[in-house]
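A favour between colleagues. Tell me how you read the following sequence-structure pair.

===
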Amino acid sequence: MNLRTSDVVPISEARARLTELAQDVVEGGAEKVLTKNGASYVALVDAKKLDYYHALEEEHANLMLLTEAETGLRQILARQRLTAADLDALLAG
């Protein structure tokens, strides 16, 4: 994301310009970074983009779970891990 200097706004200024900034985000496709004491604090993004970011985050989490499951299955097949049945037998034994 390329930010212009006009996309970085002190939070104290944003209070007075919130409607204008929100319109710029929705209509102009810009994202705004609000600063507090000179440091990045929060961002204004289009709600549709936020939904998209959340969907990407969920997809990433699903891919990570799938990768972990695949790794576990490979380790079981290579006898690097015990199956649940083998673990039960070992604990009972």
Q: What stands out?
A: The chain has two domains: 1-45, 46-93.
